[in-house]
Write a structure and sequence with these properties.
386 residues, three-stranded antiparallel sheet, 40% helix, 14% strand, globular, binds pyridoxal-5'-phosphate
C-alpha cells in the first residue's frame, strides 16, 4: 500500500529543482562569502542575490533580511533580541496563547529573566481579538508578537489590524509568518510589520534555513556572537547550500502562489466531502473561511488522538496532531485548549491534515476514504476514548 503524506504543515518534501541547485552550489560555490578572493566573491554574489530575492517577496530592503537556521531561531532572535535591546523602554511583552513553541517557550524564558509577558486569549474560532490587544497594551510594552497563521488550525490572525494599532506606540510588532509565507501576500512596509519570521522547509525548501526580517529602525541585540556576518546580527559562516535552495524555493513559490492556493482549497473541500459521504461525524476546528487552504484540523468525537494517528499510519495516511508527543502519549493541544478550555474533548480527539506538493486529487480522495475506514473501525469499537 502506498503511503499518502498529509502533513505538509510539519514539513514539506523538497522540490527536485531546489535539490539540484543546492547540489550545484554546494559543489561549485565553496568559497567563504567573507573572503575577498574570487572564490569568496562568487559565494558573496549568490548570498546577495538570495537576500535580494527574500527581500522582494515581502517588500523589504536587502539589508533587513537576516538569514537564520530556520523559524525557531528567527523567533528567538526576534523576541530575545528585541527584549534585550529595548529593556530601557520597558519590560512588558504581549504574545498569544496559541503561538508555536518557538515563540511560547522563548516568551517563558524571557519571563524567567525578568520580563513580564501577557498571553492573549483567542475565541472559539481560534482568533485573537483587537480589543484584547488594546486591553493588554501598556506604556512599557516593548514588543507585540502575534503569529500570522496558526500551525495547528491554519487560522489567519488579524495581523495588519494589530500592526496598525501600534503605529503610534513604542512597541515593535513581530509576526511568526512560518505558515503564512507562500500563501498570503505580505508587504511589511504597508502592513506595519517590524519583525517577521520565515522558514524554508515549509515551502519545499531545505531544512535548517530561514530568515528574520527586522526593519532598519528596530533595535535588536545580537544573540549569536562571532564574525560580522548578517550585519553583525548573526555570526557564523553562511549556509550557502541552504541559502541557494531557499532562493529557488521562493522563486518557484512566487510563480505558483495563486494556482497552489486554489488547488489546495479544492483538496480541502474534497477531503471533507468524502468524510460526509461516508457519514463520519466530525467538527472543524477553526472555520474554513478564516483558515489557509493547506490546513484542516478536524475533531472526531469518541476517538483518541494517539489511536487515530497509529491507525491512520497503518492505513498509510501520514497526518498529525498539532500537539507534542511525549513518551508515546499526546499532550492535549495548547492551541485547542486556548480555543475551547482544557477540559474539552476536542483537545484530545483532533487531527491535523495538511496539503501540499505531495498531493493530487486522487491521493487526497484516497486518504479521506482511508480516514473514513479508520473512523468506522474506531467508532464501532467505541472504546477509543473521548
Ligand atoms: C508557526 C511556526 N513557527 C515556527 C516554526 C519553527 O520553524 P523551524 O522548524 O524552521 O525551526 C514552525 C515549524 O513547525 C511553525 O509552524
Amino acid at each position: 500500500m502506498n503511503s499518502i503524506y498529509l502533513d505538509h504543515a510539519a514539513t514539506t518534501p523538497i522540490d527536485p529543482q531546489v535539490l539540484s541547485v543546492m547540489n550545484t552550489v554546494q559543489a561549485d560555490v565553496f568559497g567563504n562569502p567573507s573572503s575577498i578572493h574570487s572564490f569568496g566573491r562568487q559565494a558573496r554574489f549568490h548570498l546577495d542575490e538570495a537576500r535580494h530575492t527574500m527581500a522582494q517577496t515581502i517588500n523589504a530592503q536587502d539589508k533587513e533580511i537576516i538569514f537564520t537556521s530556520g523559524g525557531t531561531e528567527a523567533d528567538n532572535l526576534a523576541l530575545i533580541g528585541t527584549a534585550l535591546a529595548n529593556e530601557h523602554k520597558g519590560r512588558h511583552i504581549i504574545t498569544t496563547a496559541i503561538e508555536h513553541h518557538a515563540t511560547l517557550h522563548t516568551a517563558e524564558y524571557l519571563e524567567k529573566n525578568g520580563f513580564e509577558v501577557t498571553y492573549l486569549p483567542v475565541d472559539e474560532q481560534g482568533l485573537v481579538h483587537l480589543d484584547e490587544v488594546d486591553k493588554a497594551l501598556r506604556a512599557d510594552t516593548i514588543l507585540v508578537s502575534v503569529m500570522y497563521v496558526n500551525n495547528e488550525t491554519g487560522v489567519i490572525q488579524p495581523v495588519k489590524e494589530i500592526a496598525s494599532m501600534l503605529v503610534d506606540h513604542q512597541a515593535f510588532f513581530h509576526t511568526d509568518a512560518v505558515q503564512a509565507f507562500g500563501l498570503i501576500d505580505i508587504d511589511v512596509k504597508k502592513d506595519g510589520i517590524d519583525l517577521l519570521s520565515v522558514s524554508a522547509h515549509k515551502i519545499n525548501g531545505p531544512k535548517g534555513i530561514g530568515f528574520l526580517y527586522a526593519g532598519e529602525d528596530v533595535l535588536l541585540e545580537t544573540l549569536q556572537h562571532g564574525g560580522e556576518q548578517e550585519r553583525k546580527h548573526r555570526g557564523g559562516t553562511e549556509n550557502m547550500g541552504g541559502v541557494a535552495g531557499f532562493k529557488t524555493a521562493v522563486e518557484i513559490m512566487g510563480n505558483t502562489k495563486r494556482a497552489r492556493s486554489d488547488l489546495y482549497e479544492g483538496y480541502k473541500t474534497l477531503f471533507l466531502e468524502v468524510l460526509e459521504e461516508e457519514n463520519i461525524p466530525f467538527r472543524l476546528n477553526g472555520s474554513v473561511k478564516t483558515t489557509v487552504p493547506t490546513i484542516l484540523n478536524i475533531s472526531f468525537p469518541g476517538t483518541q488522538v494517539e489511536s487515530v494517528l497509529i491507525n491512520l499510519d497503518l492505513e498509510g495516511v501520514a497526518a498529525s496532531s498539532g500537539s507534542a508527543c511525549t513518551a508515546g502519549s499526546v499532550e492535549p493541544s495548547h492551541v485547542l485548549s486556548a480555543m475551547y478550555g482544557s477540559d474539552d474533548s476536542r483537545t484530545t480527539n483532533s487531527i491535523r491534515f495538511s496539503f501540499g506538493f505531495a498531493n493530487h486529487e486522487k491521493n487526497v480522495a484516497d486518504a479521506a476514504r482511508r480516514t473514513a475506514k479508520v473512523m468506522h473501525r474506531l467508532m464501532k469499537k467505541g472504546g477509543a476514548g473521548s
